[in-house]
């Protein structure tokens, strides 16, 4: 980790936090969160230790996919505020050392976007080629469809013009034709626009669909989507040297490599580790660390200009699509047996705490693991206080209920009357009376303080983000023992117990310099001695977790 790089590649050891302006904090009391509310709560994020805020779509929208159906790429949904408010938000965040990235959703538009409205008027409309059309009905199988509850094909007949248009998601989200130079120009213009307004990069939506070749019957296609991804990367870097592209790429590890680009980093900088995330759930369901250990062994080692984004939950369903049918069933049985908790046959519309029956030991173990792996952690709002979903909200949006700030009216999210709230808050065990930020910030034993401590410990060890991982041998199946190493010689051992029984983990650390000690980073920085041949025995509680920094005999104590 060279210090020059660590400034430019700031995202290698940032702490990302995803929030939806609509559900974060309602500043004007109309029932919907807004940009001024988000700005108001930046100090909270600063205190928590967040260094990069990822904003979910806040653009003008037809409101059929929670903002992912955009009608104008250059604006702000008037319910949420104005462009002026947006610039203030980014400016204020910057002054607190928080960068802002925004969702970039140009795989598709809304069908209410003026381009599509124009395109469907006639086959020779100037906007026709902004979208992908086929004169005959292309073959599409139900397994190609992302939302099988509502769609049965990726192609929809447009009655007026008698041709089919491509839509990887809902039929009201027609895919843009990124092969069209005019669309490419709009893409650059959009990216450039938001960069000028101060953002530090983009979370790129639906990457494998955006950078794909879609076979339109009868057409020969020479377009190379990866070359185009490289062009976008270059364009962004010209505009802002240290801008980040964080991609949503849920494909097997081998296929992920090509989205990072070549050794000169001409692709995405970061990709979510969907595979590792799913294997963590399988390990939790089984009380057996081997699935995640195996995934980590297979996870490609990245060059320094690329990075994994580690996460436990996000704003969508917990997808388990990369597990086998029997593995997925095991996770369903453990964490979402009720059919109403399941979605699309592949996922769970739940947040972590209720899946684990509110067992804080297991919750802490899961987050500790996500933060201890090489990569950059990404949190979804409310995870820091152990918020649950609201199952009353239909579909995926169950996990997008309003942030729970206080135990008061509407969880402190809004002063509007309840029926005007953009979405209802949950009641009962996980309702705001019991789970809220204000109470937890006053209680140093709370989950919020656990998360804050984890965040600061991660930030104090920037090498984690630059490290490579090796799984250590030890006999307990329930335990993952891994070591992160970074080129300066820094190393950290982490232990995670997926089992309900405490145990002793015996390690042989023969590569460690004689006279080294292990410093317990999460527990009072106590020092543990190794014997002469590097052997050590470590206690690990039920669902326990430990981060142990290896401190060489010549090194200064950790302050
Ligand atoms: C992925 C987003 O995460 C999801 O919420 C959205 O519905 C689709 N892309 C379509 O934009």
TrEMBL record:
InterPro entries reported in the protein's UniProt record: Alpha_amylase, GH, GH13_cat_dom, Glyco_hydro_b, O16G_dom_2, SupH-like_C
All copies of domain Glycosyl hydrolase family 13 catalytic, residue ranges: 18-420
Name of the featured protein: Alpha-amylase
A Pfam family hit: Alpha-amylase
Catalysis: reaction(s): Endohydrolysis of (1->4)-alpha-D-glucosidic linkages in polysaccharides containing three or more (1->4)-alpha-linked D-glucose units
Claim: Hydrolase is one of the keywords in the record: yes
UniProt keyword terms in alphabetical order: Carbohydrate metabolism, Glycosidase, Hydrolase, Isomerase
GO biological process: carbohydrate metabolic process
GO molecular function list: alpha-amylase activity; cation binding; isomerase activity
PANTHER family, per database record: ALPHA-AMYLASE FAMILY MEMBER, MALTOSE ALPHA-D-GLUCOSYLTRANSFERASE
Stored CDD domains: AmyAc_TreS
EC number(s) reported in the record: 3.2.1.1
Organism: Mycolicibacterium hippocampi
Family designation: Belongs to the glycosyl hydrolase 13 family.
């Amino acid at each position: 980790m060279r210090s020059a790089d660590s400034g430019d590649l700031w995202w290698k050891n940032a702490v990302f936090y995803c929030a939806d302006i609509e559900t974060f904090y309602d500043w004007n009391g109309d029932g919907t969160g807004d940009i001024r509310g988000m700005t108001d709560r930046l100090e909270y994020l600063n205190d928590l230790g967040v260094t990069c805020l990822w904003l979910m779509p806040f653009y003008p929208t037809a409101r059929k996919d929670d903002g992912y159906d955009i009608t104008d790429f250059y604006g702000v949904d008037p319910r949420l505020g104005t462009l002026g408010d947006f610039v203030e938000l980014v400016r204020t965040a910057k002054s607190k050392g928080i960068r802002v990235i925004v969702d970039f959703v140009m795989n598709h538009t809304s069908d209410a976007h003026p381009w599509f409205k124009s395109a469907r008027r006639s086959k020779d409309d100037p906007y026709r080629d902004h979208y992908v059309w086929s004169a005959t009905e292309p073959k599409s199988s139900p397994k190609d469809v992302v939302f099988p509850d509502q769609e049965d094909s990726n192609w929809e007949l447009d009655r007026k013009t008698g041709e089919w248009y491509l839509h990887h998601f809902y039929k009201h989200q027609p895919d843009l034709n990124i092969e069209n130079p005019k669309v490419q120009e709009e893409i650059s213009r959009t990216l450039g626009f938001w960069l000028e307004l101060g953002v530090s990069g983009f979370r790129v939506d639906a990457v494998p669909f955006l950078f794909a070749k879609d076979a339109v019957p009868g057409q020969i296609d020479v377009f190379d989507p990866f070359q185009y991804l490289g062009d976008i990367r270059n364009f962004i870097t010209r505009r802002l040297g240290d801008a980040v592209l964080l991609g949503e790429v849920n494909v097997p590890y081998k296929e992920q490599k090509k989205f990072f680009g070549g050794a000169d980093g001409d692709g995405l900088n970061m990709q979510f580790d969907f595979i590792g995330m799913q294997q963590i759930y399988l390990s939790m369901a089984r009380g057996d660390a081997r699935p995640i250990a195996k995934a980590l062994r297979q996870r490609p080692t990245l060059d320094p200009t690329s990075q994994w984004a580690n996460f436990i939950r996000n704003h969508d369903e917990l997808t388990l699509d990369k597990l086998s049918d029997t593995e997925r069933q095991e996770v369903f049985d453990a964490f979402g047996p009720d059919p109403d908790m399941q979605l699309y046959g592949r996922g769970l519309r739940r947040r972590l705490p209720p899946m684990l029956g509110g067992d804080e030991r297991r919750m802490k173990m899961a987050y500790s693991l996500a933060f201890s792996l090489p990569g950059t952690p990404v949190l979804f709002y409310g995870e820091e206080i152990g918020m649950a979903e609201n199952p009353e909200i239909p579909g995926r949006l169950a996990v997008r209920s309003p942030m729970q700030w206080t135990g008061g009216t509407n969880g402190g999210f809004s002063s509007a009357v309840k029926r005007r709230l953009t979405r209802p808050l949950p009641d009962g065990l996980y309702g705001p009376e019991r789970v809220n930020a204000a109470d937890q910030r006053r209680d140093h034993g709370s989950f919020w303080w656990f998360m804050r401590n984890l965040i600061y410990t991660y930030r104090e060890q920037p090498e984690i983000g630059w490290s490579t991982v090796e799984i250590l041998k030890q006999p307990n199946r329930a335990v993952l023992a891994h070591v992160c190493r970074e080129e300066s010689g820094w190393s950290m051992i982490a232990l995670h117990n997926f089992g309900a029984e405490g145990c002793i983990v015996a390690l042989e650390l023969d590569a460690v310099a004689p006279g080294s000690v292990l410093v317990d980073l999460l527990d009072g920085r106590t020092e543990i001695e190794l014997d002469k041949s590097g052997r050590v025995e470590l206690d690990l509680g039920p669902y326990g977790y430990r981060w142990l920094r290896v401190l060489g005999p010549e090194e200064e104590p950790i302050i």
